[in-house]
Write a structure and sequence with these properties.
The complex is a heterodimer of chains A (131) and B (277). By secondary structure, chain A is of the alpha+beta class. Chain A is built from three helices and five strands, in the order H-E-E-H-E-E-E-H. Chain A has one domain: Beta-Lactamase, CATH 3.30.450. Chain A is globular and about 35 Å long. Chain B has two domains: 119 residues, 2-Layer Sandwich (Beta-Lactamase), CATH 3.30.450.30; 147 residues, Barwin-like endoglucanases, CATH 2.40.40. Chain B has 277 residues and is an alpha+beta fold. The chains are: A alpha+beta (131), B alpha+beta (277). Chains A and B meet through helix 2 and strand 3 of A and helix 2, strand 3 and strand 4 of B. Strand 3 of chain A pairs antiparallel with strand 3 of chain B.
C-alpha cells in the first residue's frame, strides 16, 4: 500500500473538521469524558488539543496503537472530506473486529473514545452533544 | 482469480449500484495491499489513489488493533463508508440525505454476491480455463435432456412395431430435438496479431473445442456465435489457440476488427456458443 507521509504539522489540522458545541469548556469536557469512561463497554479515551493531551485507557500497552489510530482517523477525515466534498466531518466511527473508536472534534479538542466491540455509541454521542 | 475478471465484474456492479442508489456518488474497491480493483465510472483513478492513501494509516493501524470491519466518516455534506468484504475494501460515498441502511444493504448484498459468484464460477482462476466454467451446469442440463429423449425413441419404436403406421416423420422431427442445446462459455478477450491472422477467425482453447466435438459427435463445429454483455453478437470462424501461454486460461484471441465490430476491448468478457451445423 502506498505509504502516507505523516505531516509534522499534525496539530495545525486539529481545528479543521468539526462542529458540535464549542461552548463546552475544557474542564466540562474532561468531566464528561470521565463519565463516559464509566459507561459499560468503554475502554478509554484520548483527548487532544493544541496544547495538551490526556489519555485514559484501561490497557496502557495499547496507548501507542490507539493514539496512532486516533490521529490517523482525524487525518483521514480531513483528506477524505476534501477529496469527496463531505463538508465538516462531524464524527468518524471505526468499527474493528475487536474494538470500536468514535472520533469527534469539539472546538479545538479532538476526542477519540474507544469501546469494546458491539458497544452502542448513541449514549456517548448524546452526552457529548448536550450542551 | 484474475484481476481483469474481478475488475470487470466489480466495475459493472458498482455502476449498477449507482443506478439503484443514485445517492451513491462514488464507489470503488481496493485490495488490502492498496491495489485498486475497480472504481465506478464517475470516480477518477487519481481520486481513488488519494483516498486509499488517506485511509492507509487508519487501515494499517486498524489491522494492528485486531482488524477492520467498517469505517464511517460522517460529514455535514456527505458520508463515506469503508467496508471490509473478504480481503477487499469497498468504499462508498453518499450524499447527506442518503438512507445509510438501504445503501449499505444494497452495496453489501450486491458486492458480496458478485464476489461469491466470481469465486464459484472461476475457482481456479483462468489457470484452468474459465471457458469450462459455465459448461458444468449446462452439461448436466444436456444430460437431463438426453435421457427423456432416449426414452422417447424407444417409445416410438414400440409404437412402430405395434401399429406400423406413419410416425416416422414425427420421429425424425423429434429426434432432431435431441441435439443438445449449444453450450455457452465465457471467455476473456485477448488480442491476436500477425501477418497470417485471418480477420474473421477467433482462437479458443483446444480443450473446449474437443469438449464441444465430443458433445456434438456428428456435427461440424467450425464457427461460433460471440455475444457481448452489451448484447452485440457476431459469428466467427473457430480455431484452437496456438500460443501455449493462452491455453487453459479461458482466453479467446480475437482480431481487433471483430473487437471493434462488437464494441469491446481486450480484457472484457464475451459469451461464446458453438454454431452447430
Amino acid at each position: 500500500m502506498v505509504k502516507k507521509k505523516k505531516s509534522a504539522q499534525e496539530t495545525s489540522a486539529i481545528a479543521e473538521p468539526i462542529v458540535v458545541e464549542e461552548t463546552i469548556s475544557g474542564d466540562d469536557l474532561r468531566a464528561r469524558l470521565e463519565e463516559i469512561k464509566s459507561y459499560r463497554g468503554v475502554i478509554g479515551y484520548i483527548l487532544r488539543n493544541a496544547n495538551t493531551a490526556s489519555i485514559d485507557l484501561d490497557d496502557p500497552a495499547k496507548i501507542i496503537d490507539y493514539a496512532v489510530l486516533s490521529s490517523s482517523a482525524f487525518d483521514a477525515s480531513r483528506d477524505l472530506s476534501q477529496l469527496f466534498d463531505l463538508g465538516n466531518v462531524e464524527n468518524s466511527i471505526f468499527d474493528g473486529r475487536k474494538i470500536k473508536m468514535l472520533s469527534i472534534s469539539i472546538g479545538q479538542n479532538r476526542i477519540s473514545i474507544f469501546t469494546e466491540k458491539g458497544t452502542d455509541l448513541e449514549k456517548i454521542l448524546m452526552n457529548l452533544h448536550t450542551s | 482469480m484474475d484481476n481483469e475478471v474481478y475488475s470487470f465484474a466489480l466495475k459493472n456492479t458498482l455502476n449498477e449500484i449507482q443506478k439503484v442508489c443514485p445517492d451513491v456518488k462514488n464507489a470503488f474497491v481496493f485490495k488490502e495491499d492498496g491495489e485498486i480493483v475497480a472504481g465506478d465510472e464517475n470516480t477518477a483513478e487519481e481520486t481513488i489513489v488519494h483516498a486509499i492513501d488517506a485511509l492507509d494509516g487508519m487501515l494499517e493501524k486498524g489491522e494492528a488493533t485486531g482488524g477492520v470491519e467498517n469505517i464511517v466518516f460522517e460529514g455535514n455534506k456527505g458520508r463515506l463508508n469503508v467496508s471490509h468484504i473478504n480481503d477487499l475494501y469497498l468504499v462508498t460515498v453518499t450524499s447527506k440525505g442518503a438512507d445509510a441502511n438501504y445503501v449499505n444493504t444494497v452495496t453489501h448484498v450486491l458486492v458480496s454476491t458478485v464476489l461469491k459468484l466470481l469465486e464459484k464460477i472461476n475457482p481456479a482462476p483462468l489457470e484452468n480455463n474459465s471457458g469450462r466454467l459455465q459448461a458444468e451446469p449446462e452439461d448436466s442440463i444436456t444430460e437431463n435432456s438426453e435421457e427423456p429423449a432416449e426414452e422417447f425413441v424407444e417409445e416410438v419404436e414400440t409404437l412402430e412395431h405395434e401399429e406400423n403406421v406413419e410416425p416416422e416423420a414425427e420421429t425424425e422431427s423429434r429426434s432432431e430435438s435431441i441435439v443438445p442445446e449449444a453450450l455457452v462459455n465465457q471467455f476473456i478477450v485477448e488480442n491476436i496479431g500477425g501477418l497470417l491472422v485471418s480477420g474473421d477467425t477467433v482462437r479458443i482453447d483446444n480443450d473446449i473445442l474437443l469438449q464441444w466435438k465430443e458433445l456434438y459427435e456428428d456435427r461440424k463445429i467450425e464457427e461460433a456465435e460471440i455475444e457481448t454483455f452489451g448484447g452485440k453478437s457476431t459469428r466467427c470462424k473457430l480455431k484452437p489457440v496456438k500460443d501455449s501461454k493462452y491455453e487453459g486460461k479461458g482466453i479467446i484471441q480475437m482480431p481487433e476488427k471483430i473487437q471493434h465490430a462488437l464494441g469491446i476491448r481486450k480484457g472484457e468478457l464475451v459469451r461464446v456458443k458453438p454454431v452447430i451445423e
